[in-house]
Every structure is written in C-alpha cells, then in structure tokens.
Amino acid sequence: MMDNKILNNGNVKIYYTIKRGKKEALVFLHGEAGSLSAWKEILSFFERGDYTLIAVDLRGHGYSGRPESEEEYYFEKHVEDILSILKQEKISEVILVGHCMGGMIGMMFASTYPLIVKKLILINTGSKLPRMVGIFKPILWMIVKLMEGVKFVKGGKRVDYAKYKNSHELSLPRLYDDLIAMGVSSFAKQCLACFRWNGEEYLKDISCPVLVIGATKDILYPPSTTKRMAEVIPRHSIVFIESNHVSIINVPRKIYDTMMEFLQ
C-alpha cells in the first residue's frame, strides 16, 4: 500500500506517494500533462517486491500546486522538488524512472546530482523536443501563449488511465482529459518551459548506468531518435518494445519486465 504525502516547497505543495521497502528507492516521474496515476499498473507489479517506491505528481500536475509564473515550471524547479522529497524522506540514493518529460527531468537530475542517482531508466523520451514540435515551434509558441491566459479551467485532478489502455499517443479523448485535469494555463506554462529543453549538455555527464526504453511505434520519439540519444550516454543499454509513446499505459507488464532485467 502506497502512503500519500505532501511536500511544501516554498509556496508550492507537491503530492507524492511512497511505500517503504528494504531495497533501493525507485522514483517515478510522469510526462507532461500526466500524473502519478500513469504509473498505477507498473507500481502494482513493484509493490509485490521489496523496493522503496516513490511516485510524484510533478508541480502543476495531478494534485500538486499550480504556480503562477512560467519560470516556476522550468525543469530546474522540478529537480529541486525531487531533491526536497528525498531530503524529507531521508533517502540518499535512488533509481530514477522517467517517462517523456519525466525522463528529461531525470536526465537533468542525474547530471546535477551524480552521487544520488545510482541508475536511470528513460522511457519514451529524448534529449531534444520531438521533431514535429521543433518544426512548428513558432506557431505552437503563439498558441500556447494564448492558452496561458485561460484561467477558468484550473485543473487539480488525476486521470484514470485504465480506460485509455491501448490508446494512440494522439488519442483526443485522453489528451482532452489530460488538459482538463492539469488546467489550461498550467499546461501552457509547462509547454513554454519545455520549449527551453536541450538535454545534450546533460547526457554526456551522466555517470550511472542508464536503461533507455524506446517503442517501435512511437511517433514523438521514433527508434532512430532514441538510438541517437542513447549513443551520447556513456554507460547505456537500449531496448525497444512493441508499443507507442504511451507504453507505460498500454504495455505496463512489458515495461516492468524490461525494468526488472536491468535492475537485477
């Protein structure tokens, strides 16, 4: 059973769940517009073992607080939140697990705090924005800036992803649920913060063993992009599974089995 916890980091409350075990601590970081509920099935497999498990609602997501300024959504702030959670729980070493944006935050954390991160697992993520986002970035930036002013959809919820199992990465019903759960303004601010991302500078400085999990049908981070990213990481192994970008929802057992092979 996972216990619910709250971290007060300045003026932002960060919600997370934790289950104490005798083995290493695994910290799970979800993608943009998601929440810790995206890990529900994978966590259920891990709960049968003896790892310490922590799953975080990143700031602006799930039940966590919604800061007002765009700067409060920068990846550096997410890194600070994770570090503060570890201090609050008195945990000195972790294995970070990140999906999409959570993987990007994991790269930054592992590069910044190499003595804390013993292993890193990156799932459906990249060192740069997806190519399609990069191409349309100027137009997307204008759209997102307009969305930033939408205050009447405030969010503060978690999506039940069980109903979206086997969904496409661009499933409109799921994306709509994500947007409403996060809140339009918070989503826009996080998008603007993501536009700053360039992880190339962090990859070469990651000293721990890294497992890169890609998906054969991922249209945001296709296998060719995933391979190029992995080649920059000094100590990496790479696995491709039959799925799309939302593999942690669609094929959680495959993700769990792949992770366990790496962890053991």
Quick structural summary:
With 264 residues, this protein is of the alpha/beta class. The protein has helices at residues 40-46, 75-89, 101-112, 131-135, 137-147, 172-182, 184-194, 200-203, 223-232, 247-250, 252-263, and strands at residues 3-9, 12-19, 25-29, 52-56, 94-99, 117-123, 210-215, 236-241. It is 39% helix and 19% strand.
Keywords:
alpha/beta; Rossmann fold; membrane; 264 residues; 8-stranded mixed β-sheet; AB_hydrolase_sf
Task: Give the helix/strand layout.
Elements: E1 3-9, E2 12-19, E3 25-29, H1 40-46, E4 52-56, H2 75-89, E5 94-99, H3 101-112, E6 117-123, H4 131-135, H5 137-147, H6 172-182, H7 184-194, H8 200-203, E7 210-215, H9 223-232, E8 236-241, H10 247-250, H11 252-263
Parallel strand pairs: 3-4, 3-5, 5-6, 6-7, 7-8
Antiparallel strand pairs: 1-2, 2-4
Structure explained in plain terms:
One of its GO terms (molecular function) is hydrolase activity. InterPro entries: AB_hydrolase_1, AB_hydrolase_fold, AB_hydrolase_sf. Keywords: Hydrolase, Membrane, Transmembrane, Transmembrane helix. This protein is α/β, with parallel strands linked by helices and 264 residues long. Helix content is 39%, strand content 19%. The chain is built from 11 helices and 8 strands. The chain has helices at residues 40-46, 75-89, 101-112, 131-135, 137-147, 172-182, 184-194, 200-203, 223-232, 247-250, 252-263; strands spanning 3-9, 12-19, 25-29, 52-56, 94-99, 117-123, 210-215, 236-241. Helix 3 (101-112) links the parallel strand 5 and strand 6 (117-123). The longest helix has 15 residues, at 75-89. 45% of the residues are buried. The model has no long low-confidence stretch (mean pLDDT 92).
